[in-house]
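Q: I'm writing up a methods section and want to include an example of the input and output format. Could you take the sequence below and give the corresponding predicted structure tokens, formatted cleanly so I can copy it straight into the document?
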Amino acid sequence: MGCVAVAPGLAPPSTGDSGSWGGNMDFNEIVEGATVYLPVNVSGALLYIGDGHAAQGDGEPNGDALETSMDVEFNVDVIPGKRIMGPRVESTTQIMAIGLGGSLDDAFREATSSMADWLTNDYKLTPSELAQVLGSAAEYKVSEVADRNAGIILKLNKERLRPLTPEPN
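A: Here is the clean output for your methods example:
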């Protein structure tokens, strides 16, 4: 799914926009079995999905993927009291923080800050431990360059985090 989002606030964004609420992220690893986490900004969250892609390369550099209609089944859960900076994705093998910004540099910083927040809050890492994990295990991927915001993904393999125990949601 190219678009997965909640309402960013009172004013609706354009359908091609993205930000901390998700949106037109065009991340090709939001696939069957992936869990997407989004911050809730308004009562009811107002989830929306769309922009089905049968296939898409990294970054959607020409503004197009192999667009298609899709039948999608999904579950929605609210995690009370949980606060996150922006979109996150979890697969069976990786945790991924999505950074979306006006430039790749901005998106890179956003992805790194979001992952640092995730590891600090859920895995209780100290600043020194955080530096060690990110410095030895971070993988960055360009997810989006076709729209107003660029996207960078910071991925960590769960195997590298196995000795750590995340706090329950």
